[in-house]
Fold each of these.
Amino acid sequence: MKKNQTCSPILVIGAGAVGSTFIKKANLLPSIFPSIHLASRSVDKCIALSKQCTSIHIVPHQLDADNSNDVLRIIEKSKASLVVNLALPYQDLTIMDACIRAKVNYLDTANYEPKDEAKFCYEWQWDLHQSFVKNNILALLGCGFDPGVTNIFCKYAEKHLFDVIDTIDILDCNGGDHGHPFATNFNPEINIREITQNGKYYSNNKWTETKPMEISQVFDFPEIGKRNAYLMYHEELQSLVKNINGLKEIRFWMTFSDEYLNHLKVLQNVGLTSIKPISFKGKSIVPLEFLKTCLPDPSSLSENYSGKTCIGCLISGTKNGIKKKVFIYNTCSHEESHKELSSQAVSYTTAIPALIGSALIARGVWSGTGTLNVEEMDPDPFMEELPIMGLPWKIKNY
Ligand code: NDP
């Protein structure tokens, strides 16, 4: 962070892969948040992190974030002015409800998801816009990498590089190898729900649905090389269609190895990726929740993780009457992330943007009221902070 301005305490909810990375990075930069309240379902994880942090003061709390009253209780106890939600998308609405009642700002990295249906849409959160406006508070939605940095790359391009943007392809490549036959890089339940849903893209004023993994294309990723990427639906498509003027087409692509897809196919075929409850030994269980307990914890993957991620936006449009195309992107090394924070690059690239967004809100650089997506903020201060905080970005002309 550039300016040496200390911020008032914040409350971070969730001490998993992303939450712990956020805390460890904040500990390296004690002038931003010298004191953080950390609340999660398993208080042991919060206590363990508080012991690791030697430069900042961590106050651990046990919390059931599915219960809005419990969230309110911890907000009041912490006297936080900002709640950073790094728990799961299932908890977004209960946490937002508590923020409205306590009149404090809110930030997250993933849209609300009901447990029983994979939807990946912002409607539920956007419906709370007036409640946030009335209480003069801000809910900043989607401040991870994708959504998050990708949205800000698009806004930066609109502000500085184009008069009109025609098309955006968001490209997400993990060119790393963690050595496990099958593991997900963030919460397995959320990750598998996202990947197994139908694909969807926006073109010429209409949305088109595709079967999962139906469409693929080879992209040449900087510092990684050629990889097969699959068209998927991702929540930032919904907000960017609304917030980028004149956009004609937007698609989201993610790379998967053949080995990953083969494992996923088998797990799907035997029903283990389903979110419909089944009866097991007289109890109702959700197969995907059971599968999650069998898979490696994403926060445990960083040791021996080699390779890099490359995530960016391939954007075409017009500037001064001339057609142009650029790729704005970041590459992040798993080894370097592990060296710095004992985290893998997917947690790193999610947590650092959340930390930057939190600091910009806490310092009043980013402000506003209502539920706003990150691309509705000025992209410049965020783009300035990215390289300083460990996520340099580049622009490649095509
Ligand atoms: P993890 O499963 O590793 O961590 C989630 C944490 O939330 C755990 O500590 C968990 O507690 C806690 N938690 C879950 N339910 C509750 C509850 N009811 N009350 C309190 N705490 C709870 O997930 P990740 O860290 O991988 O992901 C965190 C978030 O980041 C997710 O929403 C994910 O979708 C998002 N994400 C966003 C990305 C982006 O680029 N925008 C990329 C990657 C992730 P416990 O330890 O007890 O299980």
Amino acid sequence: FEKVPCHIYEGAKEASAAIAKTIATLIREKQQQGKPCVLGLATGSSPRLLYAELVRMHKEEGLSFQNVISFNLDEYYPIDADALQSYNRFMHSNLFDHVDIRRENIHIPDGTIAKDQVKAHCAAYEEKIEKAGGIDLQILGIGNNGHIGFNEPGSSLFSKTRLITLDNSTRLANSFEFQTVSQVPRLAITMGIQTILKAKKIILMAWGPLKAPVVQLAAEGAVTEQIPASLLQQHDDVSFFMDTAAGSELT
Ligand code: F6R
């Protein structure tokens, strides 16, 4: 497989601005064609500056999200929709509340549904993505263990949206948002690897020195389900955007 093209910027801010430009261009192209623009979105610390830049472009440069349909990667399970740590809340406070996206076009896995409804919810999520025409551009972060979405190491190449058990390392990495690590939910609903790989274009972001080893493995190492992000090497339009620290171990 081709190794992944890597774009290294001085800082997360510059890289995020470049990704925001790519998104804005795509949204406007689709607008001119009278078509929806289907975005796959991530949460966590990595996309914060990207969403801030998109909000700025909406306020200062007239970038409209009227034709945007969004699908978020994942959500903790179970979690209240407006819990401080919920990804639903994160998306509204970092992006959706500040732009003109139509509420009915926002899709986030539902962390509040009953357990016996989860399977149907996941299948319906996949169907909604298909019905929207598929994801035009998927934005990803990367976990220290190589996860994308919450597809932990060992996730199948053929996985779809489903309920998964979070790795302890993931719960620990995300525990700063909770009072203690034991309060981090043990489960999550995530798009699958196959769901992600079906996107027409994929951009993965990584910032800071802690991500350097896993970025090297994902971009240049063997393609293995043990490093889910390495499976992206099989996609024909994927690129990694990083700062110099995250790119410091690339050969
Ligand atoms: C979040 C997600 C995760 C994060 C990853 C990195 O929606 O899908 O894969 O992208 O855990 O998290 P941060 O950006 O907090 O380092």
Amino acid sequence: MDWGRRHRLSRIFDPRSGRTNMLAVDHGYFLGPTAGMEEPAVAIPPLAPYADALMATRGLLRNTIDPAIVRSIVLRASGGPSIVGPALEDEAITTSVEDALRINAAAVTTQVFVGTPFERQSIANLALLVNEAGRYELPVLGVTAVGKELGHQDARYIKLAVRICAEIGADFVKTYYTDGFEEVVRSAMVPVVIAGGKKLETERDALQMAHDAIAAGAAGIDFGRNVWQSPHPVAMIRALRSIVHDDASVDEAHQMYKDLAADEK
Ligand code: 5RP
């Protein structure tokens, strides 16, 4: 692996823990102004100091974010469909590698829709990104989609989708936590981080999921809604960070969340 790729990855994965606490804020590329992220210029700056990487689109970055506040960027490079259109899986690569380099992204990302009529197209999108980004030693994050079209998926499906991303050349993969996650990590070949998914009922539920994923060998988390839809987003990202980087227990992290939330009042 070239020095440049290693350097970019070290901006995402903190060398002290080897893990990453990413913050996903790219939802607007198909969901528009999602609850809690209507005004990125207001929502993101207080959270940025606690995120190792921001997963975002170029439009959100250029229009709302001061480059000085962000440690690293994982740039969303796919898009096309919207939540009100016929097929969310019908994605194309929308952002060139040249533009990712102008933004000084540490990685670029697209997602695969394994098991849908668009699996070939979405895997070809990932391959294109790997080929193009590879010219500049720019790492690629492969994302395995679930959601409306695919529903909840078990370890068998997640293992399949994650491994396909790695075989196509992704440097790391983002997927969803599931029972049997150790098996997902074992067969992934590359580091695996988890998405948060829809806001869980309680903050403790989200902390528990992050903890279970790390205990099962995940290399980090990339939560969005479970951070910025929390009543106390800064307390939440800091509590999650303590699990990812400091091996905090769920009780310790939850206490940290409650203490920080109380201090805000
Ligand atoms: C969408 C994404 C999002 O970044 C991902 O869903 C993470 O956000 P959340 O934790 O809110 O699910 O990759 O495809």
